[in-house]
Amino acid sequence: MTPKGTPTLAERARLLPVLKRFPEARAALRRLFRDSASFQSLCEDYRDCLAALQYWEQSISGEAPALAGAYAELLRELEQEVRQFLEDDKTSRSGRP
pTM of whole model > 0.70? Predict the structure, then answer.
């Protein structure tokens, strides 16, 4: 983060795939990214998994279908983790005055 709390270009690159997947939660995702190192790590994992999935979906290798399937399942699990972060954030914010 820059001194003003704005994500750097590299940080935005980690967050962008999650923003594209959950556009309705942009503000919450940006806040979570700014405030949570574990959410930043989740965004990095999501970005890397998505890149691997896209690679294996395009591959003509014999192992590609199995690997693409494995990465697709992992991506769904990571999306569920993002949803849990969003739900936890919503719950914690609703309890505030």
Answer: yes
Taking the C-alpha atoms of residue 95 and residue 74, their distance in angstroms, rounded to an integer, is 32
**Per-residue three-class SS string for the chain:** CCCCCCCCHHHHHHHHHHHHHCHHHHHHHHHHHHHCHHHHHHHHHHHHHHHHHHHHHHCCCCCHHHHHHHHHHHHHHHHHHHHHHHHHHHHHHHCCC
Amino acid, single-letter form, for residue 44 = E
Question: Between these two residues, 94 and 58, which has the higher pLDDT value?
Answer: 58
* Cβ 14 vs Cβ 41: under 8 Å: no
CA distance 40 to 34: 8
**What tens digit of pLDDT does each residue of 50-69 get?**
999 999 999 999 999 999 99
- Residue position matching structure tokens 């001194």: 3
